[in-house]
Prior knowledge:
The chain has 254 residues and is mainly beta. The chain folds into two domains: 11-121, DNA Polymerase III, subunit A, domain 2 (DNA Polymerase III, Chain A, domain 2); 138-249, Proliferating Cell Nuclear Antigen (Box). The chain has helices spanning 19-28, 81-87, 144-155, 207-213; strands at 11-15, 34-40, 43-49, 55-62, 66-71, 75-80, 96-101, 105-111, 116-121, 138-143, 160-165, 170-175, 183-186, 192-197, 201-206, 222-227, 233-238, 244-249. Helix 3 (144-155) packs antiparallel against helix 4 (207-213).
Amino acid sequence: xxxxxxxxxxxxxxxxxxxxxxxxxxxxxxxxxxxxxxxxxxxxxxxxxxxxxxxxxxxxxxxxxxxxxxxxxxxxxxxxxxxxxxxxxxxxxxxxxxxxxxxxxxxxxxxxxxxxxxxxxxxxxxxxxxxxxxxxxxxxxxxxxxxxxxxxxxxxxxxxxxxxxxxxxxxxxxxxxxxxxxxxxxxxxxxxxxxxxxxxxxxxxxxxxxxxxxxxxxxxxxxxxxxxxxxxxxxxxxxxxxxxxxxxxxxxxx
Length: 254
């Protein structure tokens, strides 16, 4: 392992780029209180559910995406967001993020000038992940930047975004109550890579949650958005270093 730690770790890893843990934490900051992290020989898995059970993020990064990954035995760790945010305060792009655990304690080392060390206890969290089984009527593969711009524009005029697809020509995104701020994403514009519509569908979602999770856009070049009438939104981010982040968001309550 690249850094000395004070514990005898059962698992340890070094992220390939410090922007990876930073983007993950930024996407969850203010939404969840804690995350469940599982580390085994196949890689790193994270699950986070907000207290209101409105949104859920699952993230998987394979072992090949880390500079180092050592596993004596699989561990599931409960980590408070407050502690994770503390470890990333003031980090610089050339620093390295090292995480190790013996099951009871978690130790994070930020390798830089100076090197900083953080140590905290793992917390008890349920290991069961809620099952979301939805047959989606709309699946769109979208360029990250056009989607981010559409969400930013709508956030300036309202709290909910309406996603609508009536056919396979365009995905429309607009402010839910007034239908203002319409963004029409099409293949011709380059904003829409692919679109499948089994049935015309539209649904509204709270935009603040979407804005948060778009911090993961720094780790992806495109995203897949899936929805149906009165169904959860699913956003899938294929990560450029390997792995996938999947975000679910409940529809606007009627």
